[in-house]
């Protein structure tokens, strides 16, 4: 099954970003992908953290959710909306949410980012917890490909990548593919992005699909990019450094079984 990581350099303009996302989704569908995943904050990267509050949608309704459902239905794709802000009980915060749509346009899974990024090196400062309410539950869903093959897919977002216990929970739930839509900073991405992604693939013997924001944004933020597809042995199958684009890869059940059979590490778990 072909899969696609969609890399973007989202601006502060929602309509422009959705137009770019639609173009990339069409490219992915045209290349034969059955699953296309957008990056974190694909709808907009705001001037300030409080912009998320203005863009927040209620679950089940809103411009971005309608866009994702329509794209999935019209293109016949499984579409994962990297993240979008969804309203929560606290009016001063939102959930940073991944939504999964099947080719019929139905929303079949929701994951709220659990681990919230905080970073301060004296020059760059981020604190997602100031405006984002964390999720609490890991989420895995089943994707049935056009050939009838079932794939178990584990959801995560960006900073979650640094917490292997989440991905181990996905492995226990039978995950074959791990999704990591992200907006890694240039600083942290350059240091750790590929290293962490390959580690998650290797230790959980699963494919990893990681679409990212990649470039210099209108708000001045510089994201690392390097969206990539990684196989269960930790090999990077495809990637794109910077700029908007489509990174394609292929899930192969035979390759997955080969890795898990020759080195049955998942069967050797003790803790």
TrEMBL record:
Q: Which CDD domains match?
A: nit (cd07572)
Which residues does the UniProt record annotate as the domain CN hydrolase?
1-253
InterPro entries cross-referenced by the UniProt entry: C-N_Hydrolase, C-N_Hydrolase_sf, Nit1/2_C-N_Hydrolase, UPF0012_CS
Please list the coiled coil stretches.
Answer: none
Record's SUPFAM superfamilies? Answer: Carbon-nitrogen hydrolase
UniProt keyword annotations, A-Z: Hydrolase
Its domain of life reads: Bacteria
Which Pfam family, any one, appears in the UniProt record?
CN_hydrolase
Q: Which GO terms describe its molecular function?
A: hydrolase activity, acting on carbon-nitrogen (but not peptide) bonds, in linear amides
Family matches, as PROSITE patterns: CN_HYDROLASE, UPF0012
Return the similarity comment.
Belongs to the carbon-nitrogen hydrolase superfamily. NIT1/NIT2 family.
PANTHER family per UniProt: DEAMINATED GLUTATHIONE AMIDASE, NITRILASE-RELATED
Protein name, entry field: Nitrilase
């Amino acid at each position: 099954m072909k899969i696609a990581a969609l890399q973007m350099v989202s601006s502060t303009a929602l309509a422009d970003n959705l137009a770019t996302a639609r173009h990339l989704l069409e490219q992915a569908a045209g290349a034969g992908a059955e699953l296309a995943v957008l990056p974190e904050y694909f709808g907009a990267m705001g001037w300030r953290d409080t912009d998320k509050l203005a863009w927040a949608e209620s679950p089940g309704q809103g411009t971005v959710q309608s866009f994702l459902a329509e794209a999935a239905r019209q293109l016949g794709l499984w579409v994962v909306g990297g993240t979008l802000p969804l309203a929560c009980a606290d009016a001063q915060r939102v959930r940073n949410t991944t939504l999964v749509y099947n080719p019929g346009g139905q929303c079949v899974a929701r994951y709220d980012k659990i681990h919230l990024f905080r970073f301060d090196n004296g020059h760059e400062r981020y604190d997602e917890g100031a405006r984002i309410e964390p999720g609490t539950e890991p989420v895995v869903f089943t994707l049935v490909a056009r050939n009838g093959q079932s794939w178990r897919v584990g959801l995560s977002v960006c900073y979650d990548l640094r917490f292997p216990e989440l991905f181990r929970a996905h492995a226990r739930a039978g995950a074959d593919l791990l999704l990591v839509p992200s907006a890694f900073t240039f600083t942290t991405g350059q240091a750790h992005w590929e290293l962490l992604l390959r580690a998650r693939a290797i230790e959980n013997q699963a494919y990893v699909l990681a679409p990212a924001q990649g470039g210099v944004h209108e708000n001045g933020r510089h994201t690392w990019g390097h969206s990539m597809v990684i196989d269960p042995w930790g090999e990077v199958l495809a990637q794109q450094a910077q700029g908007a684009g489509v990174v394609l890869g292929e899930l192969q059940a035979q390759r997955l079984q080969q890795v898990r059979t020759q080195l049955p590490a998942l069967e050797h778990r003790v803790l």
